[in-house]
Every structure is written in structure tokens, then in C-alpha cells.
């Protein structure tokens, strides 16, 4: 498997990354970018590589009780380097994993990353009022191997909503959508039709 990758001359950095991820995904391993320098090199490794960094100084007892880390310092690692002719080649630095392969790849955040095309689809369906689970179903129908989960789409919808509000409250955004001077009518019990004017909030 990895010998095929090592023997391949990739047309671009993106081609190298996508091919490596795809091959190892089929084997139950998620590959992510560890570090890179544009037009120079890229280091790819298992997404379970590295160690947990306790930035908040939480005690080991509390951390074990409340949450766990996926990082178990897996040493598996490739290095991709750009050649003089513009192609990209891979070099194996460590071919060993210190854990078993995964049967459910949706548990790996790196497998749930959205492409630009997928993001546009979610944005379009969100603005059309489509529910989260319906969006998920549409994405999976397009590609049965899609690893996106409900939370991924919910997070995207939250970001879209936040960008649309642009710091405004939902009520302020509603008034802005209606526009200044929008007229509404209310019929009173006496049969009179009363006009009211909605004024946008400053």
C-alpha cells in the first residue's frame, strides 16, 4: 500500500495529500497535515499522533472523569517534498501505528472536514430553510462514503447564522430585512383597519 505511494510522482501538493488520505481511509486510518511550508514540503501523520497539552492546567483526575484525548502519540508519519521538476514525492518516516484501525471513521474530526463544494451546498440549503437531517441525507445520497455527521452541519449552520446577523440581534436583523417604512395593518374589533409603521432599530 505505502510502497505504491512512495513510487508515485504526484502532480501537486493537493494531489499528494488527497491520495494519501484516501488510501489510508480505506484501511481505517485518518491522515492529517502536521506541518507544511507552501511549495516546499508537507508532513502528514496519523490524526492520533501527538500528545494532549493541558493548557488549562486541569488535573489528571478531572480530565479522565470529564473527557479524554484522542491523541496517543501515534508515530506514523510521511513527508512530502516538491521536486525540481515541480512534481511531489512522498518519503516514509515511520510506518507504524500504535493502535488498531477504526471501523467508524466519522469519529475522526479530520474525516469530517468539508470541501468548498460541500460548504456551498450546506449554505444554499440552510438559506432555503432545509432541516439539518435533510441536509445530511442529501450529502450522503450524493456520496455514501461521506463522513459528515449532524454536529458538523449544525456547526456550519450556526456559523452561517452568525455571519448573517453580523453582530445584530435576531430582532434587529428582522427589521433590517423588512426595511424602514414597512407598513403593517391590524383590524380592530370595531372593524376599523389601523395602520402601523415598523421602524428599524438603530
Automatic annotation (TrEMBL):
<dbReference type="GO" id="GO:0010106">
    <property type="term" value="P:cellular response to iron ion starvation"/>
</dbReference>
<dbReference type="GO" id="GO:0000981">
    <property type="term" value="F:DNA-binding transcription factor activity, RNA polymerase II-specific"/>
</dbReference>
<dbReference type="GO" id="GO:0004491">
    <property type="term" value="F:methylmalonate-semialdehyde dehydrogenase (acylating, NAD) activity"/>
</dbReference>
<comment type="similarity">
    <text>Belongs to the aldehyde dehydrogenase family.</text>
</comment>
<dbReference type="GO" id="GO:0045944">
    <property type="term" value="P:positive regulation of transcription by RNA polymerase II"/>
</dbReference>
<dbReference type="InterPro" id="IPR010061">
    <property type="entry name" value="MeMal-semiAld_DH"/>
</dbReference>
<dbReference type="GO" id="GO:0005739">
    <property type="term" value="C:mitochondrion"/>
</dbReference>
<dbReference type="Pfam" id="PF08731">
    <property type="entry name" value="AFT"/>
</dbReference>
<dbReference type="InterPro" id="IPR014842">
    <property type="entry name" value="AFT"/>
</dbReference>
<protein>
    <recommendedName>
        <fullName>FAR1 domain-containing protein</fullName>
    </recommendedName>
</protein>
<dbReference type="GO" id="GO:0006210">
    <property type="term" value="P:thymine catabolic process"/>
</dbReference>
<dbReference type="GO" id="GO:0006574">
    <property type="term" value="P:L-valine catabolic process"/>
</dbReference>
Amino acid at each position: 500500500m505505502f510502497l505504491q505511494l512512495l513510487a508515485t510522482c504526484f502532480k501537486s501538493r493537493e494531489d499528494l495529500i488527497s491520495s494519501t488520505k484516501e488510501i489510508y481511509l480505506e484501511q481505517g486510518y485518518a491522515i492529517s497535515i502536521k506541518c507544511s511550508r507552501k511549495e516546499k514540503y508537507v508532513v502528514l501523520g496519523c490524526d492520533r499522533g501527538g500528545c494532549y497539552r493541558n493548557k488549562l492546567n486541569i488535573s489528571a483526575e478531572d480530565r479522565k472523569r470529564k473527557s479524554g484525548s484522542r491523541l496517543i502519540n501515534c508515530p506514523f508519519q510521511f513527508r512530502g517534498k516538491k521536486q525540481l521538476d515541480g512534481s511531489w514525492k512522498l518519503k516514509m518516516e515511520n510506518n507504524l501505528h500504535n493502535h488498531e484501525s477504526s471501523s467508524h471513521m466519522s469519529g475522526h474530526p479530520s474525516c469530517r472536514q468539508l470541501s468548498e463544494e460541500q460548504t456551498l451546498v450546506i449554505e444554499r440549503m440552510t438559506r432555503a430553510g432545509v432541516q439539518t437531517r435533510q441536509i445530511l441525507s442529501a450529502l450522503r445520497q450524493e456520496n455514501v462514503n461521506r463522513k459528515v455527521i449532524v454536529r458538523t452541519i449544525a456547526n456550519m449552520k450556526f456559523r452561517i447564522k452568525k455571519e448573517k446577523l453580523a453582530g445584530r440581534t435576531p430582532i434587529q436583523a428582522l427589521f433590517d430585512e423588512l426595511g424602514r417604512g414597512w407598513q403593517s395593518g391590524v383590524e380592530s374589533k370595531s372593524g376599523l383597519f389601523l395602520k402601523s409603521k415598523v421602524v428599524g432599530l438603530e
